[in-house]
Specification:
This protein is an alpha+beta fold. Helices cover 23% and strands 25% of the residues. The strands form six sheets. Strands 15-16-12-14-13-17 form a six-stranded antiparallel beta sheet. Strands 2-3-1-5-4 form a five-stranded antiparallel beta sheet, sandwiched between helices.
Length: 540
């Protein structure tokens, strides 16, 4: 640097006022009425989901970002979607930021594009006076709490952080806590908490998944922009029943890694004649686990650990049904009495939901299409364990496949079973003969909890089905479609063919983690390849 300065002086350059560069991002508040220059904003894409505003500020180190100038974007479901809007103090710094296009955070390259002031205001701007007062207290770090009991009080939150181990102090006591409510005053189960320093905040984060009452609480770092977004969304009267963070559920646990049994019959979920389960019918097609939890309201506290079971068709589409395991028969009956034939508001439309008590045996009967199954693994299923439709490097989800259904005792005439075949790169997953008909399939799938800051996904690779490819599409076309995902390469792409050996318009793409697979779906689903819309489905 000294030699550069010396050369500039020798060339006659005169240094005027020095440009002061901020060492770290300063917190700040953005109002809906504030003017933001269009020439000062960029959009960053491809961010790791766990990135904080300070991580993004470090990516743009050496450039001055306005106070509170990093706004992490949320999807309609409340998840961070891998994008952020960044506001700089000057157009010059904005232009320098664009030069960092395709620089890396870790192993991920980040795309940087121009954006407008309106884009930034739409994400970061707020008009909620309660939020403004909360954010103006000057806390260095904001922690978001999710999964709070609906009756939680500020004193209970203070007690949660003050108990050992990892005792920490909330800034300004009760005034440093902001609960999120719907327009009618009901709690969403979320709250934001201020801490005076990074040290206190780090101690607080060690309480992630600690218990308050009967609920475990999830904690992660937040930002001023996220507070504004969540408050704006929760108080929107056009969507009164929609939760502020509708994809974040504390009730669904991590799916265990499967080793010895890649495909598990669904009667292993639960069994018995006790009517301690409820069956939900007529769910909206796009409804997620947290939509169900919101619909059940206070009765969701009676759901057992890992007890929400969404039901999907063989095409990976929601069937409109779900089964929920409750703590007791009384809880199931109480839930049914109070929620049966009630309305669920989803996408601004109302649906009447059936809530019916049932037993574990009833659940298994429905999930196996009316075929009785014993608790032990039937001998007829054993041969299916050696034959996988997913590469052995991939851990498939818990499901009962068509082949297992066809192998079990059943009163109706059975289709001809699919025969095993030798694997060949050009003829991936092609059965030797086509069965006369395919019985319906229902897949059971327990969604893992999703936190923008802490995503608990099953370990191991995940597979995406790519549907709608032109029949002449090549592996290179698929790689070009997933530009920005360096792990998509010829070794992870499998173009599928029909029984006649011709391309069927599908491909399987293996990702190293579920996080990357879901990011790929979020960014690439329903994009164009040539003149074709491409659909993406997660199958593992």
């Amino acid at each position: 640097m000294a030699s550069i300065v010396h050369r500039l002086i020798n060339d006659g350059h005169v240094f005027g006022e020095s440009d002061i560069v901020s060492e770290r991002l300063e917190p700040g508040i953005c109002s809906k009425n504030e003017f933001v220059d269009d020439n000062s904003v960029v959009r960053a894409r491809g961010l790791p989901w766990q990135s904080s505003d300070q991580d993004i500020a470090r990516f743009f180190k050496g450039l001055n970002i306005s106070k509170g100038g990093v706004a992490l974007c949320l999807s309609p479901q409340g998840r961070r979607n891998g994008e952020a809007l960044v506001r700089f103090e000057s157009e010059e710094h904005r232009d320098l930021a664009i030069r960092r296009h395709k620089h890396h955070i870790g192993q991920r390259y980040i795309e940087v594009y121009k954006a407008t002031g309106k884009d930034f205001i739409n994400v970061a701007g707020g008009s909620n006076t309660e939020a403004q007062a909360f954010l103006s207290r000057g806390g260095q770090v904001i922690i978001r709490m999710r999964g709070l009991p609906f009756t939680a009080t500020t004193q209970q939150v203070l007690d949660f952080f003050s108990r050992d181990p990892n005792q920490c102090i909330v800034l300004d006591g009760e005034d440093g806590i902001l609960f999120v409510h719907y327009p009618d005053g009901r709690s969403t189960g979320d709250a934001f908490v201020l801490f005076a320093s990074e040290e206190e905040a780090n101690k607080a984060l060690k309480k992630h998944r600690d218990i308050m009452g009967t609920r475990y609480i999830e904690l992660f770092k937040s930002t001023t922009a996220e507070v504004q977004q969540v408050l704006n969304r929760s108080m929107d009267p056009r969507n009164p029943e929609q939760p502020a963070d509708s994809q974040l559920s504390p009730l669904i646990a991590q799916i265990p890694q499967q080793t010895t049994l890649p495909m598990l019959p669904q009667n292993f979920i639960t069994s018995g004649t006790r009517r301690d389960c409820v069956r939900l019918r007529n769910l909206p097609t796009g409804a997620q686990v947290t939509d169900i939890l919101t619909f059940l309201g206070e009765y969701s506290q009676f759901i057992v650990y890992q007890g929400v079971h969404m039901v999907y068709t063989s095409q990976g589409e929601a069937s409109g049904e779900a089964f929920i395991q409750m703590e007791s028969e009384e809880a199931a009956v109480l839930t049914s009495i109070n929620r049966h034939r009630r309305q669920m508001i989803f996408a601004n439309k109302k649906r009447i939901i059936d809530v019916i008590p049932c037993s574990g045996d009833d659940m298994s009967l429905v999930l196996t299409n009316g075929m009785p199954m014993t608790a032990a693994l039937p001998p007829a299923v054993a041969p299916m364990i050696q034959r996988q439709l997913i590469p052995t490097a991939v851990s498939p989800p818990t499901m009962i496949p068509t082949s297992s259904i066809a192998s079990l005792p059943y009163q109706m005439p059975q289709p001809a079973p699919m025969q095993a075949f030798q694997h060949h790169p050009a003829m991936t997953h092609i059965p030797a003969q086509r069965p006369a008909y395919f019985p319906p399939i229902l897949y059971w799938y327990p969604s893992p909890p999703v936190s923008p800051q802490n995503y608990l996904a099953p370990s191991g690779p995940s597979v995406i089905v790519m549907r709608g490819l032109p029949f002449n599409a090549s592996c290179q076309d698929v790689m070009n479609y997933f530009q920005g995902f360096p792990e998509v390469n010829p070794e992870t792409v499998q173009l599928q063919r029909n029984t006649e050996g011709k391309p069927n318009g599908d491909a399987l793409i293996t990702f190293s983690s579920r996080t990357e697979a879901e990011r790929a779906i979020l960014e690439k689903n329903r994009r164009m390849l040539g003149n074709r819309f491409i659909e993406l489905f997660l199958v593992s």
